Structures are given as C-alpha cells and as structure tokens.
Amino acid sequence: MRFKRHYLYGVILILAGFIVINVVIIEKHTHGTKMEKDLVATLFDRKSHHSRQIRLLQERDTTLGPESDQPAYGMQQDKNKVTETPVRHDKPPIEHRIEAIPEQALLRGKFRKLKSYLTIGIPSVRRQGDMMYLYDTVSSLLRASTDTEKNDFVIVIYLAQQDQKWIQEVLLKIDKLFSTEIESGLIQVISSPAKIYYDFTHLIRTFNDSTERVQWRTKQNLDYAFLFKYCENLSTYYINIEDDVIPAKGFFNSIQNFIRRQSVDWFCLDFSSIGFIGKLFHSRDLNLISHYLILFSYFQPADNLIDYMKKITTQFKDIRHKPSLFQHRGVVSSLRDKKQLIIDKLFKDQIAVSQKKYVIENPKANIETDMIAYDHYVPNSPYLVGNDLFWAFNITKGNYYKMIFEKPVNLTKIYINTGHEKKPHDILYNGEMKVGTSDLKCNRTETLADFHETFILDQSIPNDITCLVIEVTEDQKEWLIIREIALFQY
User: Fold this and answer.
1) Domain containing 373 — which CATH number?
2) Does residue 321 sit in the same domain as residue 208?
3) Is 335 inside any structural domain?
4) Angle CA(401)–CA(402)–CA(406) in degrees, nearest 5?
5) Both 403 and 293 in a single domain?
6) Nearest to 127 by CA among 230, 216, 231
7) In this structure, are strands 106-108 and 187-191 parallel, antiparallel, or unpaired?
8) Are 319 and 258 within 8 A, CB to CB?
9) Which domain holds residue 367?
10) Last residue of a domain, one of 58, 90, 122
11) Do 159 and 214 belong together in one domain?
12) Over its length of 490 residues, how does the chain's per-residue pLDDT go in tens digits?
C-alpha cells in the first residue's frame, strides 16, 4: 500500500513538473503571477487531502519570517468544531522573495568581472556537537586544483542557519583560513534571512519519516532553492556538493573532460553515487530547478525530486562519471541524533577515507607527532569523528604519536588500528603503547603493551590517564597509516 502511494506521488510530481516548466516560462514573461496557487488549482481538486495541504503551504507562505505575529494558516479549535484562521496576503510568495534577496546575501568575497566556467555550491548548517567539516572540505578543493583551474571556478559557501552568533564565528574562521581566496573572488560566503522559510508545523509525513525529518528535508530543499537562485548567473555550469566531502585529485579537469564528451542533450550529470553530492547542472536551469524545489519542498528529498525532473526533461537515464569524484567523509549528520555512516565505494582516490569500525566521540585532546604527514592526511584525522586517516612516511625508531587529554580520563577500552585495505603493508610493525597518569604535559610515561598493527586493550587500564603515546621501536621501510582511534570512557 505504501509503495502504491509513493508511486502515485511520483506520477503526480512528474506530471506537475511538466506544468511547472511551462508556468515558470510564462511567469517570466508576465512579471510573476501567483505560480504555486494557480498550479495547485490545476493539479488537484481542492477537496482532496493533498490539495488542501498544498493550499495550506501556499496560503501560509504569505506570512513567513520572524516579523509575522501569527501563522498565515492555522487551526483554531474548540470542543465542537475546527475553523480556519483568516489568511493574510501582505507578502509575496516564497519564490518571489527568494528572487528578491540574492544580491543582498553576500557576506564575504566579491563578484568576478568575467563569468566562470563552474560554480561549486556548498550549503552548510550547524551540526550537533559543533562538528565542523566545512573548512577541511574547502581546503581539499583548493589543494586538488591548480592555480589556472582556480581562475575558472568559484566556490559559494551558503551558511544556511539563522543563528547569527554561529555565522559570525564561522566567518572569523573563514577570514583567517581563506583571506586570499576571499579577496580574489574565488570564494563567496552568503546567508539568507528567515523569511525564505514557511511555517513547518503542518507538513504531511511521507515515506513514514518522522515529523522532524520531514521538516529537516523541507528546509534543505528551500536552502537548495535559495543557493541555486543566487548562483544562476555566476558561471556556465553549477555543481552541488556538501560541506563534508573531499574531491579526487584533478576533479576539475575530469569534470571538464566529461562535459566535453557528452554527445546528447542532458539535464544533470552525476559525479558521485551518494544523494545530492556531485550533481552538475547548466546554470541556465538553476532558476527552473529553484522553483521546482520550492513547489514540492515537503514532498520528497531533493535527490528524489531531481530524479523526477530528469524524466520531465527527457533524460531517462543517469549520466554518471566513473569513478566518483567526490567522497562523503562526515559522520555527524545535520539532522539531530543521526549518524551518516556512508562512503562512496566508487570514489577515485580510495585511500582517502575508510569506514571506521566504531563511531564514538573521543575525549578532547591535543595531538602531537614528529612523523611526517603525507599530503592532506593530517595527524588528528583518525582521532576525530569521521572517516579520515593519518598517513606518514619515513618512519624511524623513536617516532611518536601523542594524545594529550585536556583533563584526566578513565577508559574501559582502547582500540587503535593501522593500515588500509588498499595499503595493507602500511601498518605499525614494531611499537609500544605508553600511558601517562601523573604529568599533564606527557613527559613521564610507562609502557602498557607492545603494539603491532592493531592495539586492543580492555582490562588493566590505569585510572586518571593524562595521555596516550604510540611509540615506534624499530625503523620500518613501509609507510604508516593510523586508520582509527577509539577510546571508550566510563
């Protein structure tokens, strides 16, 4: 029964999409009639349940934002009846408000004189525990590109959050890390006002998703709609990624070559096999996609809606670059209490990330090492929540990897794994695990046990540990990958 209902939704969305395209085109030439209201009246009988729910969104949409003193549409209940509150029509529909805002959205960066070849859009929101992948994502894009390539693309970071304190904190960090790129126009940072959102309290639950998940994915669709509208005139093509991915080396050149090789008309090209990551569009289509995502914002997730839109535009098969050029690396989702344990097995640079055995948040610590890191495989990666690793070379006797805790900790289990499926020889061959309990600077330690390849200890662990140290006891010709560190606390 559920399958039939979702199939019906799909048919409705496809039929609606054909009408949306024509309505948007007409709207451009008639200076914007009430697109959603007219379209909904065409698609559904007003007495039907779904018609009524869409009409609620359309009518409620006229009073969005913190300045509204009441919902545009609500239910006032007494013991005997349910009545509809009056509808205010003092504000334009959401798609018109989104169109009116983009030029005011820019927080950092500037517009380049010439149109770029590609815009890379990165929406970012605050995650639980303030986990932040954004800076590494942007850094990895820059590292994977040549100076010449950087002249041909622009990165647009969309801070899709209404928490102004958080936005200012992120801006300070971006200013510090990417000041040169901001000044050149390579990076732009934008945000949006609250009035681009409508009231999410009366959304229909689909796919048996929780109310919270439906609200989350609806906001996500509206965020995409805003970002697409902002980016429509920046470049010839637009690609959407997330704030917790890394690119393959030479990704930009691979994208250019793949576009050149296309011999038929296309609506969307895929450069990842995961969700909405790596979907590339003609920038000329972004306005149309923005309208479409707004209209069906609460029906389905964005990647599903885009799949329907492919069919609407007569692209009936996915056109996917293999291998994938973008890898998902985050674990903490933007949806509260959700862990996103997924990686792209078709990713070009398979060594870049690795699925960890455990997903836990280790105690806060400073990581110190005298090992030489290779490329962007930095020392703190295996210690943090995520699928990144530390890769070092020229490993010699006496090399160390220290975890110095901010305050003493009590542990029930220590799990540390070295090596990787693609590099099975890059393990720790001869080492020791040491522990400090009396010195916050980790100058005095004692040996817990020998360490070969994988270290697991779940008994006889001292209390009030101030640091843990992995020490190399013999030279080795192979490189070393520290893949995962999981420390279980009381």
Assistant:
1) 2.60.120.260
2) yes
3) no
4) 155
5) no
6) 216
7) antiparallel
8) no
9) 354-489
10) 90
11) yes
12) 444 455 455 555 555 555 555 444 444 434 433 434 433 333 333 334 344 444 444 444 433 333 333 332 223 333 333 333 333 334 445 555 555 555 678 999 999 999 999 999 999 998 866 677 899 899 999 999 999 999 999 999 999 988 899 999 999 999 999 999 999 999 999 998 877 787 777 777 877 778 888 888 889 999 999 999 999 999 999 999 999 898 988 999 999 999 999 999 999 999 998 888 999 999 999 999 999 998 888 888 898 999 999 998 999 999 999 999 998 876 655 556 555 656 767 776 655 556 678 878 899 999 999 999 887 788 988 998 777 789 999 999 999 999 999 999 999 999 999 998 888 899 999 999 999 998 788 989 999 999 999 999 988 899 999 999 999 999 999 999 999 999 999 8
Please tell me whether residue 16 adopts helix, strand or coil conformation: helix
Number of Cβ within a 10 Å radius of residue 8: 11
199: left (phi over 0), alpha (psi -120 to 50) or beta: beta
Is residue 399 domain-shared with residue 442, that is, in the same domain? yes
On whether both 457 and 313 belong to a single domain, the answer is no
Residue with tokens 């929540």: 385
Separation of alpha carbons 234 and 101, rounded Å: 16
CA distance linking residue 271 with residue 258, whole number of Å: 10
The model's pTM is 0.64
Looking up tokens 């990076």, which residue turns up?
187
Asked, for residue 344, whether it belongs to a domain, the answer is no
